[in-house]
Design brief:
Length: 348
């Protein structure tokens, strides 16, 4: 397993700056997830680490060596793309061993590596099949196997599960997590799926427009988002945002809402962010609200509320049923809120 260290990395494509002076340190053995909206530069960044895209500035260090100008083959990297791109006329075994055969790896070594990867990915019984005789999930496993046999110091994954249906996706997600625990390799994984990011990552890098917005463990990012963009990007339903003001008594006020803040914050305009699970429905709660929509989810319900003109979503567990138009009372857990600067979006 290798470290990856990006220093002031910039990438320009077609005259457009895609990545700007990006600094990132990936620890050996880490499962780092790059998360961000479509077009923010995740694939470009991954391709530059692999050596498929040239850096226009800065440096890329892999396993302690400066690899900025090295060929992809010298970088000690295995990569899995979103499209499996398997050779249709080759068997699973030949697909997996193709790169090693091209590199002139001895036969016995190829057999050992393919055997090991096939066993880890439960492909043993499928080695003599052609891709057309495999399910989507099995094909993606072969694509992962093809990267694994390289026994690289770093594995790069670019949305490897996004072509699969939801159930298969969740299954392979768990397999990848177990695989990482077994291999202990450094993995950099691109996704725009926040569930994948939360469940797989040792740390998440949230990106927007070619820049890093926050780096942290999934819980840090979820509980203490660095800015309003990160806060709104993670969480489903999304965090509720309420514009208002912090007064001189450290209370946040907006319309009929007044909330004593547990930590001192600067007085002035602010945006309060509260996650739906921190809006409680309770007959003794202080705020009056009307239910405008109910979304039953099976193991919980999402209530959409009109709270004196403020739209709020609340995540509710328990057997109680709600109807549109019903009057309820709700409370915001002041200890769990985030506050943001209305102009810059930065966490206050
Ligand atoms: N060869 C290229 N020439 C010019 N612009 C490019 C090129 N490749 C990508 N881009 C632009 O770079 C930006 C980042 O693209 P990239 O593919 O890295 O995004 P992404 O975060 O992986 O998005 P997605 O989630 O949709 O895969 C986009 O605005 C894209 O249009
Ligand atoms: Mg991409």
């Amino acid at each position: 397993m290798s470290n990856v260290h990006l220093r002031k990395l910039s990438i320009t494509l077609g005259g457009k700056a895609i990545i700007r002076e990006l600094d990132l340190q990936v620890e050996p053995g880490e499962f780092l997830v790059l998360l961000g909206p479509s077009g923010c530069g995740k694939s470009t960044l991954l391709h530059s680490i692999a050596g498929l895209v040239d850096a226009s500035g800065g440096s890329i260090e892999i396993g302690g060596r400066d690899m900025t100008l090295c060929d992809p083959s010298e970088r000690g990297i295995g990569m899995v793309f979103q499209s499996y791109a398997l050779y249709p006329t080759m068997t699973v075994k030949d697909n997996m061993s193709f790169g090693l055969r091209m590199a002139g790896t001895p036969k016995a070594e190829i057999a050992r590596r393919v055997g090991r990867a096939a066993e880890m990915l439960q492909l043993d019984a499928l080695l003599s099949r052609k891709p057309a005789q495999l399910s989507g999930g099995q094909r993606q496993r072969v694509a992962i196997g093809r990267a694994l046999v390289r026994e690289a110091g770093v594995f790069l994954f670019d949305e490897p599960l996004s072509n699969l249906d939801a159930k298969l996706r969740a299954e392979l997600r768990r397999e990848l997590k177990l695989l990482h625990a077994r291999l202990g390799s450094t993995m950099i994984y691109v996704t725009h799926d926040q569930v994948e990011a939360m469940t797989l990552a040792s740390r998440i890098v949230v990106m927007q427009a070619g820049q890093v917005q926050q780096v942290g463990t999934p819980l840090e990012i979820y509980e203490r988002p660095a800015n309003r963009f990160v806060a709104g990007f993670l969480g489903a339903p999304a965090m509720n945002f309420i514009e208002g003001e912090i007064d001189l008594h450290n209370r946040f006020a907006s319309r009929g809402l007044a909330l004593a803040l547990p930590q001192p914050k600067p007085a002035g305009t602010a945006v309060l962010g509260v996650r739906p699970e921190h809006v409680a429905i309770d007959a003794d709660a202080p705020l009056h609200a009307t239910v405008t929509l109910v979304e039953p989810m099976g193991n919980h319900q999402v209530l959409w509320l009109d709270c004196a003109g403020i739209a709020l979503s609340a995540l509710v567990h328990g057997p109680e049923r709600f109807a549109v138009g019903q009057q309820v009372r709700c409370a915001i857990d002041a200890a769990r809120v985030s506050l943001f600067d209305p102009a810059s979006g930065a966490r206050l």
